[in-house]
Amino acid sequence: MALRPFAITIGLLALILPSSALEDIFGLRKQIYIPRCAHACKAAIADSPLECTKKITSPQCFAINEPYLQTLAFCIASHCNNETDAARDRFWNQYLVGWKSTTPRPIYGYQNALEKAGVPLLIMKDGQRLEQVSRVSDEDYHRAYSSLADWNESEMYHTRFALTIFLLGFLLPVILSLLRFVPFPGALSSKYRAYFVYPIVWSTRWSVSIRDVGDISPTRGQALFIFYMIAINTILSSTGHYALSHHFWSFDGRHGQLITCLANRFGALSLANIPLLFLYSGRNNILLRITNWSHATFLMLHRWLAYITTFEATLHSVLYLHVAVQQGRHTEWSSMPAWYCGSIGTIAICLILPFSFVAIRRRAYELFLLSHIAFSIIILVGTCYHISDLFKTTWAGYVLYLWFAIGFWMIDRLARIARIARNGLIRATITVVDDEYIRVDIPKAKATGHAYLYFPTLTYRFWENHPFSVATTPKPSPLSSPKSPLSPFFHRHSISFSKSDSNKSSSNASKYTLPERPKGITFFMRTHSGTTGHLRKRTSLPVLVESSYGLPKPLTQYPLLICVAGGVGITAILPYMHAHKGQVKLFWGSRSQALVNALREETWGYGGETIVGKRLFVKLALQREFANVKEEVGVAVVVSGPKGMADDVREFVCEVAKTRKGEVRLLDENFGW
Q1: If pLDDT is split at 50, 70 and 90, which confidence band does 529 have?
Q2: Given 301, 303, 563, 585, which is the most exposed site by the fewest CB atoms within 10 A?
Q3: Confidence class of residue 204 from pLDDT cuts 50, 70 and 90?
Q4: What integer is the mean pLDDT of 27-51?
Q5: Are residues 405 and 450 in the same domain?
Q6: pLDDT of residue 655
């Protein structure tokens, strides 16, 4: 029995669309081969060679062959008594010879052919050469009719399953995110996250990548959703295939018809996944606000869904190529816009993957970005022409998924423009901190969390933008007072500094003087060879600020906040430190004393430890802190820094959360890209 998940889909759609819209827009009740009786007559004799047949029977051959026209006319008259003359004439003029609008018209009409046919006595057999007007056997006709009914059912499943994929891809994250509002006991929530959400799946390092290929190591929570995506696409691609019991218009019976049906299903599911790819990748993705999931999580899902979509699109094209070659129709089909436009789209979606490898993203990010945009446009345009040529529509049915993808892309871009317009064009001041870091001050601008900065006059690539964490935020207390009161639950460690012996840190620490705190926002950046390298050579320049993103999550229910930072990663957790009303402990490892001095005002007064120029042993520090906290006290741990540091924190939190009575929460504030 075929799976019917579209029943839930229709119910969900009924909440937002009237039933007529469901039928008209999505084609959930579409019917093909109308009138079916006439198409069954054609299918029953289509494989019979004609006098003009060469390797295959061409549309021109069908149009001029009198035995074919008369046999078909007599079959229609015998089985289509309930059809109107208009329906029969429409079939005769549009579908008798072929499916393209440019195919030749039959040499005479239906009524003329029926008169010429008379009452044939010869009964033709399936596949027998048709040399004179004949009757179609009842057995062949009914097999053809049932085959068309099954094929129509399969086509409806393609439509409904595609809609199921799309809707669940949008709604399921929302449904799963609602679990955060269920008042589970803190310890139970911690244990659940420690076993099923925080740990990575197949490595001791969450950020492990296949070198120069791609990031493939999700957390267990991400892996559960990835497993769902793989499972739902696998199930819906392998069920609901009725084109198995008959064998008309197929190159080798059941096998050929099943391949064609599978090809159509893979194409429909791949198409339904395309708008989800655009949705998950957007930095203004509406699901970010609704679900409270991180952008890094959606980017991880975007990458894995891209693998699935590419695999389905490739199978769709390869299977149809196989059918075309087996039927000897490759030359004919490849000249159709639907064929070569679809092929262009498939090639483009396959090329996106190698241009997205880690090697290119790290060493030539702009090449990755521009190729991503260019190939995405080719995919959308090629697929749109592919569908419109097949179904003669540009606004309904399968093409609607392309409009959803374009809509998601446009919403994201318009939201970016709106965020930029809040601050306008502002002149930024740049101060060199040391040989490794710079400080960028932007007066009058407003932002929290992190922002994307554009430097339109820095290079010819005026469109470049990169995310940076905002380092300065309003603080509740002055420099001379502690950040949070002492609590009977904790023992405060005094902050300590360990200076490096390296020449880089020591030589530059004395050169940097703390500028007056600006009224706007400040960013600290580690300079590399790209945009930040060019910034080091400037003292001021115009800047556009696209903000704000990555707003800090409220952690007021946790009496203790432990912050772990590496280098300039400190800027990502400063908002948590400043906003927290309870006890705050900071563990910061930095190679630069000048950077520590530059952020002295932002980090002063917090308990914990700051290490300069030496390794910060994160696990030992966390073990010491948890040993000084009562079992029932809730603890939140926020980390931002090198991948190794973040993985150590993740591993430790998972271990301690499994045994503690109080709730333990982990937030990883590293950027995902």
Answers
A1: confident
A2: 303
A3: low
A4: 84
A5: no
A6: 95
**What size, in residues, is the chain?**
673
Other Cβ atoms within 10 Å of 286 Cβ, number: 15
The two three-digit tokens of residue 50, written as one number? 């004609």
**Of the candidates 380, 400, 417, which is a domain's last residue?**
417
pLDDT of residue 478: 42
Regarding whether 613 and 658 lie in a shared domain, the answer is yes
Residue 411 lies in a domain: yes
- pLDDT tens digits, 431-474: 999 999 999 999 989 998 999 999 999 988 888 899 999 987 54
What residue numbers bound the domain in which 556 lies?
Answer: 424-668
Q: What secondary structure does DSSP assign to 461-472, as a single string? A: -TT-EEEEE---
433 and 409 in one domain?
A: no
Query: In 508-554, which ranges are E strands?
Result: 521-526, 540-549
User: In the listed set 79, 101, 136, which residue is the last one of a domain according to the structure?
Assistant: 136
Checking if the pLDDT of 10 tops 50, the result is no
Confidence of residue 193 (pLDDT cuts 50, 70, 90): very high
Residue 83, in any domain of the structure: yes
CA distances from 498 to 506, 521, 595, 623, 669 (A): 11, 29, 14, 20, 25
Check: CB of residue 642 under 8 Å from CB of residue 566.
yes
CA 602, CA 214: separation in Å to the nearest integer? 36
pLDDT digits (tens, 9 = 90+) for 537-553: 999 999 999 989 988 88
66-79 and 36-45 helices, crossing angle to 10°: 140
Q: How many helices (H) and strands (E) does the chain have?
A: 25, 15
- Is residue 27 assigned to a domain? no
Higher pLDDT, 102 or 120: 120
Interstrand relation of 135-136 and 123-124 (parallel, antiparallel or unpaired)? parallel
Report the alpha-carbon distance of residue 591 to residue 613 in Å, rounded.
Answer: 4
Contacts of 15 (CB under 8 A, 6+ apart): none
Q: What is the 3-state secondary structure (H, E, C) of 368-412?
A: HHHHHHHHHHHHHHHHHHHHHHHHCCCCCCCHHHHHHHHHHHHHH
At residue 564, φ and ψ (nearest 5 deg) are -120, 125
pLDDT of residue 652 exceeding 60: yes
Shared domain check, 200 and 129: no
Widest pairwise Cα distance in the chain: 109
CB atoms within 10 A of CB 240: 21
CATH of residue 576's domain is 3.40.50.80
Q: Residues 315, 392: one domain?
A: yes
Residues 163 and 94 occupy one common structural domain? no
Q: Does 351 share its domain with 455? A: no
Cα angle, residue 326 at apex, residues 94 and 131 outer, rounded to 5°? 55
The number of distinct structural domains making up the chain is 3
**Is-contact 261 340, C-beta < 8 A?**
no
CA angle 214, 215, 221 (to 5 degrees): 150
Placement of tokens 């004179």 in the chain: 132
Backbone angles phi, psi at 276, to 5 degrees: -65, -35
Q: For residue range 346-359, list pLDDT tens digits in order.
A: 999 999 999 988 88
